[in-house]
Amino acid sequence: MSSSVEAITVLSSDGDEFKITVSAAKLSKPLNWMLEDVCFSDDCDEVPTIEVNSKTLVKVIEYCEKHAPRANSGASDSDAEELKKWDIEFMKMDVKDILFHILMAANYLHMEGLYDLACQTAADLMKGMTVSQIRKIFHIKNDFSSEEQEQLRRQHPGCSFD
Amino acid sequence: MVSTVSEPNNPFLPGDVIVNILKRLPVKSLMRFQCVCKDWKNLIKSSSFIQDHLHHSSHQNPSLFLRWHNSIRMQFGLLDGDCDKEVLEVENAPLTNLFFARIVGSSNGLLCVEASENDTYPFPLLLWNPVIREVRKVRRRTIIDFELDDLLGFGFSQVDNDYKIVRIKVPEYQFVANPMEVYSLNSGSWKVIEFDNLEGVAIRSHRNVTVNGVMFWIGGKQGLDDDYSLILSFDLSKEVWTVIPMPDLNYYDKIRLIEYENRLVVLAGFFGEEKSYLIHLWVVEEDRCSSGERWIWTKIFTSSPFPPKLDPVTIWRNEIVFCPFYQSDYGVSTPILYTLNLITNEFKRFPIRSSQNDRINMKIFSYVESLVSFDNINIEDVAS
């Protein structure tokens, strides 16, 4: 890999161009493969497409750039603490409305840290939700017959289908 | 909060992503979410998900379970790391208003409890999962008669994927009566087990701990009342005893056998200078190859000195937990839980708040919330 390459350009699924630094791209195996393809290819004009929409990709790249220095060099405990705080803020302030997209992207890009973080954020959000709120965000239909609901209510007094 | 996850644009999540989210939820939420749809209900009840969830919560969210009684009734509480260090009383516990309750052991979210509403002996032996509110009675029809001073232990064997209750007779803590009995949840019955390698040794305390399917008891040489130089280990799968020498401890005050990071540790308390107290932790490794010592002990921790009135009971997230005791704060007597961090050697102090104030005889157990249920286990319903 040529050391002169510091950043590569990728396309989102909406066709927007994004720059990602080489060290940040290393957080994701698929991104890393793309990067090697681009750097070793004679024809460097081809811009790889990542099947993630622009709004989500911005956040994924932001996460990668923030985590890259630690992932590549290893860091002190105080850095780890700081990064943990940053993660919490990152999830709190910015990504709630695209949380499920982030989940899908982290899964698709094999980014373990972001995937775990997003799963935990989703779980924390779900803790206090009602059953019907859960159905709404996961696009699930209530498929229990009224007899089955009655039976479940008997087994678990106080359980609610709403 | 809720509306911030915008609904119409949410993508459909694949099954493995949903599992990864759900395994992070508390049992209470999962019990509610069984009503979402049939797929979720079947998932939450499946044994693979129950294992996933248990694995995650054992690593991420170990808790403490407390039992105490006041003048009227038994109470049970949970201390969860996420909470503001407050003991939450177990909601709608089916085991209250009891005449007697003793927790035999705690494993994978199940508690084995000897409990009764009256003074008729033998007290029923119960298995209880407090968060899913299931209670079952263990058959007490046994070959050897039950006695009040029987030693009981409860643990899980990964090899057999089975929970077992061990019952040993140790008259006056002087010798281990042969045979003993072991109850298997999978078979739903007691089995008599004979052994021949415990001659001349005795179990010295009812306290025991199970680590990786092996139950450990503090032992000593028969006839020497204050000898605590041995550990008796019982493999729950092979159902055989092994005698292990204690590490070389001089002038200790108390010893405890505790599980820490999936290993057995010996916790020894010593009096230090100026009425202070110190704790040492030891781990053992078995050397099967060399011709020298078979059991090699290593000291892994020495605490800084602290007041001797603290009684260590367990280890919870790198913290030694001490038995709570009452302290007067501005004239109000509050039970305080102290912990000592194994990495930083720092003390933390947690007041325990709950509805009842006249608590006595608090006991603490390591605990992990789980969905482990008795659905497929062959035991009697508590109503029978």
Automatic annotation (TrEMBL), chain A:
Domain SKP1 component dimerisation: 113-157
Annotated protein name in UniProt: SKP1-like protein
Family statement drawn from the similarity comment of this UniProt entry: Belongs to the SKP1 family.
Annotated ranges, domain SKP1 component POZ: 8-67
Claim: Cell cycle is one of the keywords in the record: no
InterPro entries linked: SKP1 (IPR016897), SKP1-like (IPR001232), SKP1-like_dim_sf (IPR036296), SKP1/BTB/POZ_sf (IPR011333), Skp1_comp_dimer (IPR016072), Skp1_comp_POZ (IPR016073)
Highest taxon, organism lineage: Eukaryota
Organism: Acacia crassicarpa (northern wattle)
Quaternary assembly: Part of a SCF (SKP1-cullin-F-box) protein ligase complex.
Functional summary from the UniProt entry: Involved in ubiquitination and subsequent proteasomal degradation of target proteins. Together with CUL1, RBX1 and a F-box protein, it forms a SCF E3 ubiquitin ligase complex. The functional specificity of this complex depends on the type of F-box protein. In the SCF complex, it serves as an adapter that links the F-box protein to CUL1.
GO terms of biological process kind: jasmonic acid mediated signaling pathway; protein ubiquitination; ubiquitin-dependent protein catabolic process
UniProtKB/TrEMBL annotation, chain B:
InterPro entries to which the protein is assigned, alphabetical: F-box-assoc_dom_typ1 (IPR006527), F-box-assoc_interact_dom (IPR017451), F-box-like_dom_sf (IPR036047), F-box_dom (IPR001810), Kelch-typ_b-propeller (IPR015915), SCF_F-box_component (IPR050796)
Alphabetical list of Gene3D superfamilies matching this protein: 1.20.1280.50, Kelch-type beta propeller
Domain F-box: 13-53
Pfam families: F-box, FBA_1
NCBIfam families associated with the record: F_box_assoc_1
Protein name listed in UniProt: F-box domain-containing protein
Source organism of this protein record: Acacia crassicarpa
Species classification: Eukaryota, Viridiplantae, Streptophyta, Embryophyta, Tracheophyta
